[in-house]
Amino acid sequence: MTNLTEANMADPQDSRRRPLTPRAKRYWGSLIGAGLLGAAISLLLLPLSIEAGHNIGTGDGGFFDPFENPINPTLAVLVSALWMAGLLMMCLIFYRSIDEFEERDYLWAGTVGWYAMMLTIPAWHVLWMGRLVPPVGIWWIFAIGLLSNNAVWMWRKFRK
Amino acid sequence: MKNRLKVLRAMRNWSQAELGDHLDVSRQAVNAIETGKYDPSLPLAFKMARLFGLRIEEIFDDESDGGQHG
User: Fold this and answer.
1) Residue B64 located in a structural domain
2) How confident is the model at residue B70 (pLDDT cuts 50, 70, 90)?
3) With a cut of 0.90, is the ipTM above it?
4) Which domain holds residue A127?
5) What is the pTM of this model?
6) How far apart are CA A144 and CA A122, in angstroms?
7) Domains contained in chain A, number
8) Cross-chain residue pair B13–A12, CB shorter than 8 Å
9) Could you tell me if residue B25 is inside a domain?
10) Is the Cβ pair B24, A12 closer than 8 Å?
11) What is the pLDDT of residues B52-64, one digit of tens each?
12) Considering only CB atoms, which chain A residues are within 8 Å of B33?
């Protein structure tokens, strides 16, 4: 008969490396795929945009300036279509692979990301109206939403 | 909600991750259920019951009914 003590009731995890289940493969695959897609598009656009900036003499040294320069319209359509289709596909895979507890984590992270933007944009805009700060930067808002979302998601995912 | 999941898992010498694999959920989900931080959905509770060959009420204890079972 099994003798149950606190010691063997504790989680005997992590010393054994186990292969990922199909669900976990889809879960991590969708997240890594979305990240790689965004990184690949950024790396594709960065040199093109910097070159375009040099040609038209723009850019005052802002952090996101390299992504503000004009690029070829056909390339712009192709890249935006790739992003929308690619991210949509990754999101569908992700949603179909998360369990009910992870769904709660995702909702928490999404809510915090949303509120981060809802708090920031109006406050920033009003401060700009007082000419206290530069105008609202869309990429800064994107970064604030993304980082706050990811921070909450990682805290809930990786806490013990 | 109190439950016997930790004991049942220990009887099989499974880790939380291994139990999660059997139930097709994450280790975090198993941990949250075991520690009472999260109550599983009815389909997941039935899945647990089937896995351990028990009835749901033999795994979960609804403290709000005063322990009276018909």
Assistant:
1) no
2) very low
3) no
4) 99-160
5) 0.74
6) 14
7) 2
8) yes
9) yes
10) no
11) 999 999 999 877 6
12) 101
